[in-house]
Structures are given as C-alpha cells and as structure tokens.
C-alpha cells in the first residue's frame, strides 16, 4: 500500500506490504538520507518504520471501541547495520511485526528488520488500548503525484537549532503533514528525530564514526510542532568505543513529551 505524500507515512516513503492479525509487513528506503545535524548517513528512519508496523500489529488486537497509542518503542541493531544498507542503496529495509504475548492494558509487538537477505535488527512496540478518541481524522485518500522531499530534514519538517560539543537540538516545525490521525506529531517521526539528536550529541571524535546499537523511547504525553517545540540531546558518556546519550522531545509548554536513550559503538 502506497500512502499519499500529504501523510506522514507517504512523506517518509513507507509502504505497507501485508497486514493482518497475525503478521504485518512494511518497508522504508533509507539510503541517501543524512542526519541534518551531522550530515552523515543515518538509520533514524527505521524508527518511523518500526512505530508504524509494530503499532499496526498492536492495532489489530483492539476491541471495536478501542484505539491504540504507542507508549514504548525499542530498536536493537547489529554492529554494521548501516554499512549493510549502504552497500545496496536501492534495497529498502523491511520490517515484519507479529503480536507478542497476551493482550492486557496494552499490547506488545515484536519486529524483525531485514535488508535483502540480511537480518539487521529487532524491535518492539508497546501500545496502550484507549477509548476511541472523538477527534480521529482520516488521512487523505487522494494520492499526490511526485516523490517525497529529497532531504530527511524536509521529510520530517525539522530545522537545525544547535549542534556542537556534547549537545544537539532540532526544532519540530508545525506541519500537519507529519501529524497522525489525532493531530499530534506522528510517533515514528518523533522517535526518528530523537535518534538524530542523540547520535549528533555524541559527536564524531577522532575514533571513527558511531554506530547506533539501540534506541529506547518512552511516549509520555502528546507532542505538537510549534515555535518552541524541539528535540534535544546531551551525551552522558563518550568513551573510547562506546557512547550513551539521553534525548527528549519538549513541547511549547516546556514539558518533555518523549524521552529516549541511545547507545552507540565504534
């Protein structure tokens, strides 16, 4: 399934290949996209893919009067996942999600991330089951012609606010195209942005590039783009071969809406 360009999934070029209660499969292109803070290749868009396909698998478990919202997202990558992807840039990354464990207050899905014949990572998404909100807006069904914007910065509607040292900041610009069906920034867009600022906060250093190994995100409250809305990260530890950064999405009200921890190795 192709999504219109005026939706977050269409803007990020996500395609749903299969969906059902037992398995959901989707893909996203990654090659050619750069972190706007570091100008280096990035796997941050995988957070968008994982949030979509894992959330979709959980959504199939809802009752008729229920909706789902992401509460946690985690991604684990093999050491050289980026090199595998860059070696065959025309091949998208595919995520296959399945329900994991029984349904409770929330549901958990487990995904495998593959690039061609290579398994490059695993991921989980935990979703809360809530009453159907009264303001759900259906995404446009009219497909727009053309291709998504060329840069990741444009696709995510973010702007560089600060980089350097052991801190990094991206602004989340107000743009309805990156919002989900309840009018807040799509959880996959936000999670991807947290990876961007987290990896940027580690810097490039003299020891070679960092390889993101894990990203863990908690969704605390609704997050909207605005004049003061931003993603910010600070390095907690930069060692010889490993680094850890904390990141958060902060709304116009100054409160953290999402928090994340990124671990990287080199």
TrEMBL record:
<dbReference type="InterPro" id="IPR029069">
    <property type="entry name" value="HotDog_dom_sf"/>
</dbReference>
<dbReference type="Pfam" id="PF03061">
    <property type="entry name" value="4HBT"/>
</dbReference>
<dbReference type="InterPro" id="IPR006683">
    <property type="entry name" value="Thioestr_dom"/>
</dbReference>
<feature type="domain" description="Thioesterase">
    <location>
        <begin position="183"/>
        <end position="255"/>
    </location>
</feature>
<dbReference type="GO" id="GO:0016289">
    <property type="term" value="F:acyl-CoA hydrolase activity"/>
</dbReference>
<dbReference type="InterPro" id="IPR003736">
    <property type="entry name" value="PAAI_dom"/>
</dbReference>
<protein>
    <submittedName>
        <fullName>Phenylacetic acid degradation protein</fullName>
    </submittedName>
</protein>
<keyword id="KW-0378">Hydrolase</keyword>
